[in-house]
Amino acid sequence: MIEVMVALTIGAIVVLLGHRLFVGVTEGARRMIVARTALDRDANARRWLVEAFGSLEVGNGAGFNGHANRVQFAAWQRSPEGWLLRKPIDLAVRDRRLVAQLGSSQSLVLADSVSRIELDYLLEVGPEAGDPSAMPSERASFVREWISPVSAPLAVRLRFTRMTGTADTLLLMIGPRG
């Protein structure tokens, strides 16, 4: 009888440990799926930003209005039918999210839990980073505001801070100009 009780106790411990192991594996897989989804969303948002700024167009009634915490411009965007349409874009923080408003009806959430964004506009390119012969006056010149109906900066530096305190910086090159 004692041997049966010992065997049942050992069996119960093995089943309990197996259950805990199974729960740990499934929880780890769930966390990995959530993390992968977040990374995919961040990568897609960055890809969209690079494409939007790369296809930016000024002139023909579309200007570039860049402020320290918001930028408005027009860019060529792919339509659901597959061709490109010129759409106005308004990039700003709304309800703690980085949002690109495309025209009046469509918005695209690029990042969640964003407390603020800071935008700078590249006026001119300086020497390569780390060049010891470069004078401070020769370094790249960024400005805090760029408002023009006929021109755009060379690039836009987008810094956004998340609610967690982490920050990210993107340098978005403006596409070819005529």
Keywords:
1 helix; seven-stranded antiparallel beta sheet; 178 residues; four-stranded antiparallel beta sheet; alpha+beta
Instruction: Determine Rg (CA atoms, Å).
Output: 25 Å
Q: What is the count of distinct domains?
A: 1
Give the SSE string. Answer: HEEEEEEEEEEE
What is the terminal separation in angstroms? Answer: 92 Å
Q: Into which percentage range does the β-strand content fall?
A: 35-45%
Query: Quick one: biggest sheet?
Result: 7 strands, antiparallel
Q: What structural category arises from helix and sheet content?
A: alpha+beta
- Uncertain stretches of 5 or more adjacent residues: none
Number of helices: 1
Task: Bin the helical content.
Answer: 25-40%
Overall pLDDT metric: 87
Any idea what the shape is?
Answer: elongated
List the helices and strands and how they pair.
Layout: H1 2-54, E1 56-57, E2 64-66, E3 71-78, E4 84-94, E5 97-102, E6 106-112, E7 114-124, E8 141-143, E9 146-148, E10 155-162, E11 167-173
Antiparallel strand pairs: 1-3, 2-3, 2-9, 3-4, 4-5, 5-6, 7-8, 7-10, 10-11
Descriptive report:
The protein has one helix at residues 2-54; strands at residues 56-57, 64-66, 71-78, 84-94, 97-102, 106-112, 114-124, 141-143, 146-148, 155-162, 167-173. It contains 1 helix and 11 strands. The model has no long low-confidence stretch (mean pLDDT 87).
Gist of the model:
The chain has one helix at residues 2-54, and strands at 56-57, 64-66, 71-78, 84-94, 97-102, 106-112, 114-124, 141-143, 146-148, 155-162, 167-173. It is of the alpha+beta class and 178 residues long. The chain has one domain (45-173).
